Amino acid sequence: MAKQKSLEQLRAEKEQVEKRLAQEQHKLERLENRKKYLEKGERQKRTHRLCNLGGTIESLAPEVKNLTRTEMTELMEHIFGLPEVQRAVRHMEITHINQANRGKELKANGTIPLHSIRHGHGATIVVRGR
């Protein structure tokens, strides 16, 4: 037959379970705080990137500073609807992806080609000691 636990044993088990529960709740709280921190960081990065893009547009075409959001959207739709702009965007996207992939490969073998830093000759720098 199963041995009955004493009142003291039950109290000790209860205390251990409550302590474990408090630890797990604290762990969950830390993880939720970490998630909020990371999400906030991503939002801040996005906001920073968008502000930089907006600043670039305004520096290239100062006239857009006075446009409303609707007018700016119409202008962007018109510009990005042009076939030559669509080709340029696709070209830039492909170039970006190729450079990103090349960067991953280079990290693996420890070299950095100069043409990925500036246009010109394809000289290579070997990084040692990492």
Task: Describe this structure as you would to a colleague.
72% of the residues lie in helices and 5% in strands. Strands 1-2 form a two-stranded antiparallel ribbon. The protein is built from 3 helices and 2 strands, in the order αααββ. The radius of gyration is 29 Å and the shape is elongated. By secondary structure, the chain is mainly alpha-helical. Residues 116-130 have low confidence and may be disordered. The termini are far apart. It has helices at residues 7-60, 69-81, 83-109, and strands at residues 111-113, 124-126.
Characteristics:
130 residues, mainly alpha, two-stranded antiparallel ribbon, 3 helices, elongated, disordered C terminus
Short structural description:
With 130 residues, the chain is mainly α.
Q: Topology of this protein?
A:
Elements: H1 7-60, H2 69-81, H3 83-109, E1 111-113, E2 124-126
Antiparallel strand pairs: 1-2
Task: Tell me the radius of gyration.
Answer: 29 Å
Order of helices and strands: HHHEE
Largest sheet: 2 strands, antiparallel
Main-sheet strand order equals 1-2
How many distinct helices?
A: 3
Principal-axes shape call: elongated
Query: How many DSSP-defined strands?
Result: 2
| Poorly predicted tracts of residues | 116-130
Share of β-strand residues: under 5%
